[in-house]
């Protein structure tokens, strides 16, 4: 039965909560309510309905009291006196002071948190800086946004398109003449190896660019000496980088000095540019020496026609020109300029790629620079992941401390603090802690960057202060992580109700669930890092052992240049007769990153579109030296005239589709010839790519490396000395250099994958360590709150070991769960990365996953176990008395 | 629906005018306003009482608790001298506003 009087009484008591409604006002409102109810019942409503309706009409007490306030104040926008202001500047100092006191009171806790945060910040900032450095590639060129690289697209063997940033020499000037949007063009030719001599000293230089005279006015490489406009006024001019100038001339003034190129051409130094590593940002174009194209024509017999795709061209668009609108113009351009016929290969289309994109958005384009931007983004991703792990760790610790602070919170609330103020207090604390982590962050950054840069072998300026973005990141990181990681604990801690706290009855249920989630995700991150690290380690081993179709051990490679050609046979004979030498050959490139390609057609029909295949120039005895398997036919032999002979690999042979390929005619890059043999498939290019169809021809006069197979690796040092003496007896004016194919491989990619695995493993290790510290703290707090329970359990007969098991399991089950969640994710992620990055890839076996699981669990056992054991063996009497 | 601002502005003269006819209490005032305005002005309780208290604090009205015919205590409000003067001033203002609007809205008034 509805009791009207009771209902009204209750309603009136509700009004009492409002600070403005004094007793008289409430009586008046009650009288009003009663009038209304009387009216409504007179109209036929039952008392309960009438009451509810009347109350609804009166509105909430909050609404009434704010109306009261509005009616009284003369200010348009006021704050009722019983509500605290949104922000009290006077309290800021108090927030800070109290935060500082809290931190000082819990030194070990603060130390753990600050150490974790600074390591996290340091790692993140370094990867961010590295990413930023790579991302700002080429930005030191003033017109970088208007500069585009010219790219040609060709149909490829697999039916897709090959994109090539190497174009015929006349293309650039034709573009400038015919496309109005193109304001200026420049181009360069990568000269490969060149003998550079000065004052009797000779070296091979590998990073020589042959450029048009306007190269250094088109691009803004900082010039240290020389007149930018007159650098290449004479064709026999050369511009060096600072370090190269030092190599040849020491401290002497380089300008005006003379260098001899390839023992045949004298050039004068007219300028010195900044080293690659000193540039303000990364540069996609790298060189140690610039020679004018005019001079290079003589040196390299470069033909200025439309059939040689060997130069890189850049265009600078007019201001306000729309590169997208060019497409149709360029199509017409292709039709009019490229000659028709198989020998000349005309592209499907020509298009422009912005200079800034060619480096990191266009991995499919084969270009002058093979560096890979992906790595930097992955590093940045890892940095972010690690930072979030550190935040989780902090959140975990901060929430775990709730018990310690419950009384404080209760008291604060009793003396009038409201929730918002408490939240601010806690946020202030977490932000302060984050800022306290800044000085050690600098130290961490310094250590990490020194170690990693030494490991990466880079010297460029990665100081935090040299870029605005990294300075900003440095300042903003503590603020954002402080707020982000502080917000959850702040809300949890401030939600306690004072009465319950002061009665020591805090409900732990909800908080524990959040804590579980945090522990689980933290350890899941750890296992992802670890799995990735292990997978990369395994991948390094895998590709170094992988059968790439040839045997590279005990092979020495000696760079040679054209000047040697007349004496090449003599040299080879001499080497062959040296003790410990098994075989001698030569090739145009070195397996590892050898990716010369040509268009190949079956038969001699020129209208056949054909395929783009790897095309390798080798010398007699090459297959035997590398122990490659000849499947059919024969290899190149001095007993035949091999001018028009080709050896193809199995994939190429199957592409042609003949049942009996040996003896058939093919056309390779315009040259007709016959297939004389088939070798098994192999991979000379980077293992990032799958092995493809390939064709070999006799390199003859165009060979770059002399290959020597030694009998015994351990006697290499003596052998190299013997070879050097033989060399200088025959070709004294050519520098002798020597590297083993294994070293070359190490350079080409093991170093890279090894580095990644080291970084991942290192981060994983640090992550596990930090997480365990966090877990230890959690365990400590949890055990402390359960002292009484444990003591009672003990009193009624639980053994120390069963208690340890119980306490340990409480935490380990979450670590276990995190493995259950994290390992499949780690598996998927690493498989995905492996699949996209490598064609030759290792399997991710259960062993790695199990090992990671054991590692994380083991670390967690070590962290929690001691604490659990300590509590379990404690004397129950002590703990009971203490409580 | 009359705008909030107009309701707020007109509340004072309306209450004072009602009380000019004699003392009255909150609930009745609310009903009278509704009746007089033909239902156009419908005040909420949350708004009325604060305004009454404000007027009382300003000295325009005064209140007294009295036993009603139903035997319940009720708070009656009545006009003070100051209130009557204030009402006169308000009347002048409102009439001048009314006059101006009427002129503007009369078709003959187009001449000026």
> Hey, roughly how much beta strand do the residues of chain B contain?
5-15%
Radius of gyration of chain B: 16 Å
The number of strands of chain A is 23
Largest sheet of chain B: 3 strands, antiparallel
Could you describe the largest sheet of chain A, including whether it forms a barrel? 6 strands, mixed, barrel
Report mean pLDDT of chain B, rounded to a whole number: 84
**Alpha-carbon distance between the two ends of chain B:** 32 Å
What helical percentage do the residues of chain A reach?
40-55%
Which structural category do the helix and sheet elements of chain B fall into? alpha+beta
Question: What is the strand arrangement across the widest sheet of chain B?
Answer: 1-3-2
Residue stretches of chain A low in confidence (pLDDT < 50, at least 5 long) are none
Q: Name the chain pair with the biggest interface and residue counts per chain.
A: A-B, 22 and 20 residues
In terms of structural class, how would the helical and strand content of chain A be classed?
alpha+beta
- What is the overall shape of chain B? globular
Total DSSP E strands of chain B = 3
CA-CA gap between termini of chain A: 50 Å
Question: What's the short story on this structure?
Answer:
The complex is a heterodimer of chains A (883) and B (112). With 883 residues, chain A is an alpha+beta fold.
